[in-house]
Fold:
Amino acid sequence: MKTDIEIAQSVKMQHIRDIAKTAGVEERYLEQYGNYKAKIDLSLLKDSNRAAGKLVLVTAISPTPAGEGKTTTTIGLADGLKKIGKNVVVALREPSLGPVFGVKGGAAGGGYAQVVPMEDINLHFTGDFHAIGAANNLLAAMLDNHIYQGNALGIDPRRITWKRCVDMNDRQLRFVTDGLGGRVNGVPREDGYDITVASEIMAVLCLSSSITDLKERLSRIIVGYTYNDEPVTAGQLNAHGAMCALLKDAIKPNLVQTLEGTPAFVHGGPFANIAHGCNSVIATKMAMQLGDYAITEAGFGADLGAQKFLDIKCRFAGLKPAAVVVVATIRALKMHGGVAKTDLNSENLSALEAGMPNLLCHVSNVKDVYNLPAVVAVNRFPTDTEAEIALVIEKCKALGVNVVLSEVWAKGGEGGIALAEEVVRLCEEESNFTFSYDTDKSIEEKIDTIVKRIYGGKGAAFTPAAKKEIDKLTKLGFDKMPICMAKTQYSFSDDMTKLGAPDDFTVTVRNVKVSAGAGFIVALTGDIMTMPGLPKVPAAERIDVDENGIISGLF
Structure:
């Protein structure tokens, strides 16, 4: 059996000019990065008067080590729509080097449902993440330089909230002390690093509508507080202009292709457990402008990526999905039912039934909280039995939701035709999209609402530190912002060991912080970290390149 990278390398890619032509992008908007990648000039959105296509969100159950295949399904669905004659464009996130070299691997799909060139997309791509890291670290450098050069703003070095970043899983950098070595080497202070995808600049870039909007958002970023307890912004440090200059190309969406030649935008990549988990607003709107159907995904389970897509991204960008696909595997549902990964190949109807509430809860949220049409896509594995498939269909039909078997990993677009046809049908249904909470509520009320309505918990508990910070942010006027929950992806709760659909739990909010540039409040729960670490055997140990530049071991 071929690996993902071997499949990708076996397919002859079309020239990016031909993909642009398929998408309806005139050459004057195309900025080529070689033969198979390009950026699209933002003026395309201003110049186009074409009616926007229908937006389809692909999300999933709570992830497990068994895998769900959300990105693979997203790509396969788009190829399936193309197979049935629809004009379709994909919009995905860019992979972070952290997971690529860590445990998760790449994020360009799998099998015969991939975006290519997968090696480039999973590694440096067009340099967007490097630009975001440079802008983040320029702000950090200007902040520390301001303090060193006399500290005219009266910044308290003990109350700096801005961290440096690097796009790598490196636990060694979570907490550092810098500025050591005498006066000429800076002011000693405690510091730390986030992974680039957790940087607020990543969120700012992905939520910006233009370069002007980007610059304004950058200027509002809060980097710390003065001795008088006043917030200090990037605009006060006069850093936003130079930061925006570093990001002037990164804000342009990247155009690539699926293995079957479907146009795909891959742009931006905030994590969904510690950030808002969606590709850029600009890429999504461009996909909608060019296609009759725009297929996008949001990270991790629907309680994270989809919740933030709907409550944050759609709210800011004025988007309304026409339909939602919830991806599940029978293997993963059995893990939620208590089966060990080593025993997933055997039929186990009782474990499957025990794990089903996880799927049903996600589906119910989409249908009953957000009032959106939904379909369950079962990403089929060879070990799935007919009895197991029948059980999933029966349970979902009780909620009035259809189940479609997806075989896109093995068959590409051909394996996604049934899903495509159901999505087309759903997109014609009337829906009354609503958010899960009202932003006029207090910070505590909004967090508590998410825990109760989306997670199914008893409510939220706040540590004294969190309460103190909430009071401060409320007094500063930030309390009407949406909430971005930072929570484990493995459970509806903040305890990764509580699989399935637990109901007797409280989510503990240990701290909150404002991302004033992005426009939301981040609630940090459990032991969630903004800088992951590498596993005992990192994926990087398997990656290599030969003398001809052919990469192996990437997945």
